[in-house]
Write a structure and sequence with these properties.
The protein has ten helices and six strands, in the order βαβαβαβαβαβααααα. The chain is an alpha/beta fold. It has one domain: P-loop containing nucleotide triphosphate hydrolases (Rossmann fold, 3-Layer(aba) Sandwich), CATH 3.40.50. Helix 1 crosses helix 9 and helix 9 crosses helix 10. The model has no long low-confidence stretch (mean pLDDT 92). The structure holds adenosine-5'-triphosphate and magnesium ion. The site of magnesium ion has 5 residues, from helix 1.
């Protein structure tokens, strides 16, 4: 079984959104995926109350036991939604995980928080992938200045940036309010396409492969390409 921690020291970056959608997309891809809600605010469990997706309310101190039990009962992937603090809880999630997704919005303050999280991963020698969330869509094929600036600042972070960014889309908010991932709510939509592409990349990295969409720290895969692949 593989374990993925979705982390960010910044509140509201999109940890719960990414966790719920990743778990739903993994399930769509035929994986036995379990979502562990390790955030005392319980956003993921709250959102998925009516969903058949398996969610377990847990805490940092129980993660190791949960991962072991889930593996024994045939679970294939465990996705952990973490709180923004305290650091000890984030460290506990990192330590039980095979891959950590660092979720960050492309803003100055988020970037500062993301760089601290990246430092933590480097200290712990934990494999990570940075996922930009709530990015404005490109205009006339050009990324906005905030996105381009964020990619530039992350170029030497020492951790790859996912070439699939999640854009600001109402679908994420509406789907969650209906207790669904975007792949369940609007399977043919743009949000579903980018979540599937991100999920494929995550699965490749869990297998130790870089992925068909080669990660690069200074460029994002154009949306048209993501759509064409799904
Ligand atoms: N790509 C997106 N497009 C539009 N809205 C988004 C997107 N990602 C997240 N949101 C919205 O932003 C808000 C914060 O997202 P979310 O709860 O996932 O963040 P979080 O990092 O889990 O926050 P917390 O630190 O409080 O747990 C939510 O209202 C969510 O619906
Ligand atoms: Mg959350």
């Amino acid at each position: 079984m593989k374990t993925i921690a979705v982390i960010s020291r910044k509140g509201g970056a999109g940890k719960s959104t990414v966790s719920v959608n990743l778990a739903a997309a993994l399930r769509e891809a035929g994986q036995r995926a379990l979502l562990a809600d390790a955030d005392p605010l319980r956003s993921s469990s709250e959102a998925l109350r009516a969903n058949s997706l398996a969610v377990v309310e847990t805490s940092a101190s129980k993660l190791f036991a949960l991962a072991t039990a889930s593996s024994r009962s045939g679970g294939e992937v465990l996705v952990i939604d973490t709180p923004a603090s305290p650091e000890a809880d984030i460290v506990a999630a990192i330590k039980v995980s095979d891959l950590c997704l660092v979720v960050t919005r492309p803003t100055y303050l988020d970037l500062a928080a993301a760089l601290k999280t990246i430092d933590l991963l480097r200290q712990l020698r934990a494999p990570g992938l940075i996922v930009l969330n709530q990015c404005p869509s490109p205009r006339q094929g050009q990324e906005s200045r905030v996105v381009a600036g964020t990619l530039d600042a992350l170029r030497f972070a020492g951790i790859p940036v996912s070439p699939i960014a999640l854009r600001v889309r109402q679908a994420y908010q509406v789907a969650l309010s209906c207790g669904l991932g975007v792949t369940e709510w609007e399977p043919g939509g743009a949000a579903a396409a980018e979540i599937r592409a991100l999920t494929d990349l995550v699965r490749c990295r869990l297998r130790g492969e870089s992925g068909i969409l080669q990660p690069a720290n200074d460029t994002l895969i154009p949306e048209s390409v993501i759509h064409a692949q799904t």
